[in-house]
Structures are given as structure tokens and as C-alpha cells.
Amino acid sequence: MVETTRLRETVRETVRDTVRETVRSAGRTTGRGAETRERILDAALESFGTIGYDGTSLDDLAAGLGIRKQTILYHYVNKRGLLGAVVDRSAGDLTAALLEVLEEEATDWQRVEALVRTVFRVALEQPLLLGLLREVSRPGSPAAPRLRSTMGPLLDRAMAWMNREMETGRMRRTDPQLVLLSAYSTVVGLATEIEVLRAAGLEPTARTVVTRRRELLRFLRTSLDPQR
Amino acid sequence: MVETTRLRETVRETVRDTVRETVRSAGRTTGRGAETRERILDAALESFGTIGYDGTSLDDLAAGLGIRKQTILYHYVNKRGLLGAVVDRSAGDLTAALLEVLEEEATDWQRVEALVRTVFRVALEQPLLLGLLREVSRPGSPAAPRLRSTMGPLLDRAMAWMNREMETGRMRRTDPQLVLLSAYSTVVGLATEIEVLRAAGLEPTARTVVTRRRELLRFLRTSLDPQR
DNA sequence: CGGACTTTCTACCAGATGGTAGAGGGACTT
DNA sequence: AAGTCCCTCTACCATCTGGTAGAAAGTCCG
After folding, report:
1. Which residue, among A62, A67, A199, has the nearest Cα to B144 in the 3D structure?
2. How does DSSP assign chain B, residue by residue?
């Protein structure tokens, strides 16, 4: 009830954005502006992931890049479109890395382990990605549906696979959704954790991440392994 | 570099707020305005915890309460002061609940378990608290230092206790900070988790929470129990 | 009643925000 | 050289933001 005005606005914008395109120069991937477009995405990822969507102003973003705000709005229809593009690219990176793992030949547990390691590797290489994920997974975030549509198929595939494994008895019977959710929130928790450490004045070491990963793997093993 | 202006502003405001008081009507806890003040806090907690600090406008907040924005600003010096008050009250509730547990007679492991259960119980009773925690623990949040100063002593006490237990050998030797951090991010992860579930169209059941709690307890046991 | 104090309101403002309109320049094609 | 397309810019705007000033109304006390 507090944010009635805001909500109405959100709905209207969502509809409009679906009709239009997110990226103005859709299709064109070469040309002089391609580099600018990437630079904008990089800066936006950093800003959205740290100070958040609402906390980011297009003017500040542009100033940091040494360009005018209007240049940003030339490449991306509006602020929301920019967020969409950032989410798409990031989710795309993650999806690509995961699909690569899925191509490999591996037994079930090896595959699970490989997936977890991949996610953590990507998260370590691109720590900003975790911040973005955290921001976007917030209730009412303008990009929540977008993230879902990008990552959704992959998650559905994972759940279908788990269901199959359970039917053949190679995997212990549990709720796939719950397991995936736990895994997900563990990874996102990492983002929080790293930031809290930093706020406490400690530079996060690899130790934090390793501990977390081991913990997650142990959880998955005891959840899935039919032997235990 | 992107948010130079914003950062400078933040620092200035922090200094000013430390000098002034957060609540205008400090000391007075009775009177007609007391109820209004509480209602404002309730609404602010909900808004800050869901759509975030930056996403919350004082006008919307007031409109939701059927009052004018200026009434809010009469009770709390400014927006930041309001956030401070919300954080203080929430952290106070949690601290009180934890201190109560600490008063009880209990062996070491029982006490740890009781603390964990208390935190989860409070989180379940006041789900908004988790959202707030999530918002406030964001890097550069205006209230991060405030949270630290409210909860800090309790955390220091916990760490001191753990160190003592380790010296007497009743607790396995590990890094107390890391253990507390893990516990913390597990709880905050709950907030994320619940919201993601809701976004996926599922009403979160107690099951999610129970799973998470069991997981955390197992982690703590294997981290701390000298027998294992 | 009359004054003091608390609370809520109306009126207003300076600055920032996302966004539009349209000019100008550079590069490439014909 | 002229035209076309891509890109970035200046100029401007409506709206919203947090915040201030001060009036009006209620309440309490002598």
C-alpha cells in the first residue's frame, strides 16, 4: 500500500519495454559504438552491483566514463533497458560456462561437482556478478522476470535431470527445487559475505570462498548421494 | 570513480548526523506522537527491507500511512535518521532475544543451538527484519556503521567466548570470525531464498527455514565439536 | 480563560533524475 | 562532392526528491 504509485508505474513501464527493444542498436554488433556500448555495460554492472539500481544515476555513470548521459540513452532505450542488457550479458556468461560443463562426459556426481566449481570460478573471476545477482533477486526488481527468462531454461533442465536421476535411483529422493534453491542462496550469500568482511576491514581471502564451496559440496553430497 | 559526488555527500551527511540526533523527539517516549512514531517505523522497516533505502521515497511512505511527509520529518531528523531508527529498533529486538538466551544456564553446545534457534525464530516472526538486514549489509549503506555499533558488542562477546572455549579445549580450534560470518550469511541468505521462492510463485513454507537451520547447526557442530 | 508545548499540516524550494529533441561531426559509399 | 548512416553532443524539460519555514490545531496546566 505504501508504494501504490510506484507499482503502477512499474507495471506500465514493463509493458512498454516489452513492446520496444532494450537495446536501441539491436542487431548491430560492430562499428565504432560497439566499444562504447561494452564500456557502458561494464560500468553499469559495477554500479548496479554495488550501490544498486536505484542508487545509480545515469549522470554519474556517464561522468565516470567521460561521456554524456545522452550517449548512454542512445545505446540503451532507458535506464531499465540498460539494466536488462547488463543482466542479459551476465546471465549469458554464466549460462555459457555451465553449458560447457554439461557438454563434457562425466558421471553424475562428477558433473554436479564440476558445475559447482564452475559457478564458484565464475563468481571469483567476476565478483561484480554476485553483486548484480543480489540486486536483481530483490523483490520487485525491474529485472527479476528478465533474469528468470534467461536462466529459467537452464534451471528447468537441471530439475528435469534431477528428477530423472531420482527415478532411476541414482540420486536420493528429495525436492529438486529445494536443493537448487539452497545452492543458489549459498552462492549469493558469498556476495554478502565478502562485502561484510570488507566492511569489517578484512580483505577477503580465497579461504572464505573455499570454505563455502566445500560446505556446499558436502550439503549436496548428503542431499543427493543415495549411499548416505 | 563513478559515484564520486555521491560518496562525498555520504561522508558529509555521516558527520552531520553524528553531531545531531537521529530522533528529533529524543527522550520523549509517551504522548500522542508515540503511536505515530511507531507506525512510521513499521512502514519504513517494510519499505526499506523490500524496495530498499534508495527506492523508498518519503512521500510514498507518508502516503501509505495517510499522513504528510513533513510529519515523518518532524519525528525523525531526515531520511537517514529514519533508517537509523529502524535499524536500532530491529537490532535491539534481536539483541534482546539473544541476551535472554545467554542468561539461561546451559552447556556449550546447548547454548549454541539455543542461539541459532532464537535467531531463526525471530526471523520467522519478523520476516521483514531479514530484508532490512540484507539492505543494510550492502556495501556503502548509510546504516552499516550503525548496525555494527549496535550489534558489535554482542558479536565481540560471542567471539571472546569462543576463544575461551577453544583455549580450554571444549571447542575445536578454528577461526571464530569465519564461523560467525558463515552463520550470519546463512541467515541473511534466508531472506534471499524466501524472496526467490515467492518470485517463482511458491509460497515459502516452514520447510525452507527448517532445512536451512538444520544445515547451519550441522555446520556449526562439525566446526566446533572437538569430538569430530 | 490564557499561555506553553506537542503535533500535524500547507506552502515552498533547490537540486537531481530520467528522458526528449535535434544539431553537428566523422566515416564510408556512390 | 554529395549523400547517408552512425555516433556523440548541447540544450532543455517535467517530475520527483529530501528538506525548510512557519502557520494552525490540539492538549495540558495554571
Report:
1. A199
2. -TTHHHHHHHHHHHHHHHHS-SBTT-S---STHHHHHHHHHHHHHHHHHHT-TTT--HHHHHHHHTS-HHHHHHHBSSHHHHHHHHHHHHHHHHHHHHHHHHHS---HHHHHHHHHHHHHHHHHH-HHHHHHHHHHTSTT-TTHHHHHHHHHHHHHHHHHHHHHHHHTTSS----HHHHHHHHHHHHHHHHHHHHHHHHTT----HHHHHHHHHHHHHHHHHHH-TT-
- What single string gives the DSSP state of each residue in B107-118? -HHHHHHHHHHH
**Residues A137 and A144 sit within 8 Å (Cβ to Cβ):** yes
Question: Comparing C-alpha atoms, which of B195, B216, B71 is closest to residue B133?
Answer: B195
> pLDDT of B125-184, one tens digit each?
888 898 898 898 887 788 888 888 888 888 888 888 888 888 998 888 888 888 888 888
Domains delineated in chain A: 4-80 (1.10.10.60), 88-224 (1.10.357.10)
Strand D bases contacted by the protein (CB, 7 Å): 6-11, 16-22, 27
Q: What integer pLDDT is reported at residue A31 of this predicted model?
A: 63
In this structure, the number of other CB atoms found within 10 A of the CB of residue A16 comes to: 12
pLDDT tens for each residue of B60-108: 999 999 999 999 999 999 999 999 999 999 999 999 999 999 888 777 7
Protein-contacted bases of chain C (C-beta within 7 A): 6-11, 16-22, 27
Banded model confidence at residue A66, pLDDT cuts 50, 70, 90: very high
Window 175-214 of chain B: CB closer than 7 A to strand D? none
Q: Could you identify the residue written with the cell 521462492?
A: B197
Cβ-Cβ contacts under 8 Å for B214 (sequence gap 6 or more): none
pLDDT band at A43 (very low <50, low <70, confident <90, very high): very high
Give the three-class secondary structure for A23.
Answer: strand
| B64 to A6: CB separation less than 8 angstroms, yes or no | no
**Interchain pair B138, A3: CB under 8 A:** no
Q: Which of A13, A8, A20 is nearest to A142 (CA)?
A: A13
Residue B56: is its pLDDT beyond 90?
A: yes
Can you give the pLDDT at residue B151? Answer: 85
